[in-house]
What does this fold into?
Amino acid sequence: MSEVTVGLLVFLCLAGAALGSLLLYPRLPSRYRDAETISTIRLAAGLFTLMVSLVLGLTVNSARNTFESVDHDEHVMSTEIILLDRALRRYGPEAQTVRKQLVDYATRLLETPMEEGETSQTLESSLETVGNGLNALRPSDVRSSALWQDARQHFQRIVELRWTLLEQGEGSIPTALVIMLVAWLTLIFASFGYGAPRNTFIVIVLVIAAFLISASLYLILDMETAFTGPIQVTSKPAQRALLELRK
It folds into this structure.
């Protein structure tokens, strides 16, 4: 389920709970509308609010750590691509074809996000072409052999980082935790409408509050998928790497 769908469902749950309790309240028997009942509901809502704040703090921290880890690995991968190109340059004219293949891979990496599916398969095929070209080189002396080994190490590091980034792009916030968080928020918003005055201003405030909370949860979940959505890792490292390769 996409982050947009989750955000929309959260908004419908929160707004529906708040407006539903607002409309239902006058129709309940008087024993459900006395001061003691409302006070107890407010206390329970306060407990849920505390739990929500703790869980939201954990989810924000988890999403931030994932995003920062992906961003760091993106910088490291771009650096490894540059270092591989430098090793191939020092190797000599025999590595010119491999360098062109590396430029092709860097271009594809910049133009398409690194995610699962057809895009991932295209990038993998392009990277395998670089590896095959590198394996086809035959060092003729000690110097070229050392450069070839250096290039192989950088290539292996790029492969490892690519798979690491693919795994990190899936997110780490458990679905059960998100469901529990939405359930708590729904109960809190239901308590907001319970006993509240029935007027247009209250309805607008409740709808806006539901929208802002659902938008916040959407952004938290989107931060974990660092290659898609409004919050994405910067492409500047890949751009700099491609510029270095084309010099």
User: Anything to note?
Assistant: The chain has a mean pLDDT of 88.
